[in-house]
Design a protein that fits this description.
This protein has helices spanning 16-24, 53-65, 151-155, 161-168, 207-217, 224-229; strands at 27-29, 37-41, 74-81, 91-100, 104-113, 116-126, 172-176, 192-199, 240-250, 260-270, 273-282, 287-298. With 305 residues, it is α+β, with helices and mostly antiparallel strands.
């Protein structure tokens, strides 16, 4: 069973891409009697003592997708994070087949640990169809990912377990267009954030894995524009952060093992909550997905302005 020890690093033969595929390859479970399809997922090489929200969200995407014909891909999922997950425990996913129509299917997914729901989500699937098309254009003037510093170049020399987990443990390489705010605040307090991301290695060709992987990565940086607007950093003393909900709409097929541009803005923060909205573009300019997330953001009283 996986346990979290912040003093341990991934082993030299650890393959983060293989770990991602393993986390998304859920095990079927067959209880004697149930109204749900049951799957079991696990955490491999955890980044924090709590299950990373994108992991359980991506696993929920896979669980729901396993109950629908692959020819009818997922196009949206809305989920609420209800409780923190324990990385040392398996996660049970219960999928309710709510509806299968001529064009659309709907699924409800609950992720359980110790008999309690840690995430509740509803997913929708659609048979591809012809129709009207338009999209928001991809931003211009964005540096190519190869021209930006890698995680290894930014933090590889920091002798701290969490820095090494970001560099060696994450299944995704993230390259920052806007300056990262992990250790230093941004000089410009604007509610924006832009990154490139992709998996370190090649993923299987199954489109369900790529959509789940994009969902997984979409939870890494939505809080950044909220924090940047107020001059905060992730390492801020006394700062308390938690994702409350997350939604994603997949618009067009894309591969998560090829560079994707993720732009985020925060239109509002109030009542100790911040809202972030994101757009994910393929390298050739196609709008691949749209995301929204609301997060709990509690800061020390003296830092409220």
């Amino acid at each position: 069973m996986t346990t979290f020890d912040e003093t341990q690093f991934p082993s030299d033969d650890y393959d983060p891409t293989r770990a991602l595929v393993s986390m998304l390859s859920l095990e079927p479970d067959h209880p004697l009697r149930t109204t749900e399809d049951i799957f079991v997922g696990r955490t491999i090489a955890p980044e924090t003592p709590r299950v990373y929200g994108g992991q359980v969200f991506g696993q929920s995407v896979m669980a729901a997708s396993r109950t629908v014909d692959p020819e009818r891909p997922i196009h949206s999922m809305h989920g609420y994070f209800l409780r923190p997950g324990d990385v040392s425990q398996p996660i049970t996913f219960g999928v309710e087949r709510m509806r299968d129509g001529r064009s659309f299917s709907a699924r409800r997914v609950h992720a359980y640990q110790n008999g309690e729901v840690i995430l509740s989500a509803i997913a929708s699937f659609q048979q591809p169809a012809r129709g009207i098309e338009h999209q928001e254009p991809m931003p211009t003037g964005i540096p190519e990912p190869e021209d930006l510093k890698s995680s290894e170049e930014l933090w590889g020399g920091i002798d701290h377990p969490m820095a090494q987990r970001v560099v060696r443990g994450r299944p995704f390489e993230i390259r920052h267009v806007t300056d990262p705010i992990y250790l230093r605040p941004s000089e410009v307090h604007e509610p924006v954030n832009t990154v490139w991301f992709k998996t370190h290695g090649r993923l299987p060709d199954d489109p369900r894995i790529h959509r789940a992987a994009i969902a997984y990565a979409s939870d890494y940086t939505p809080m950044d524009p909220i924090l940047r607007r107020h001059g905060f950093i992730w390492a801020q003393e006394g700062l308390s952060l938690a994702s409350l909900d997350h939604a994603i709409w997949w618009h067009r097929p894309a591969r998560a093992d090829e560079w994707l541009l993720y732009t985020q803005t925060s239109p509002n923060a109030s009542s100790a909550r911040g809202l972030a909205c994101g757009r994910i573009f393929s390298r050739d300019g196609e709008l691949v997905a749209t995301t929204t997330q609301e997060a709990l953001v509690r800061v020390p009283e003296e830092d409220i302005s």
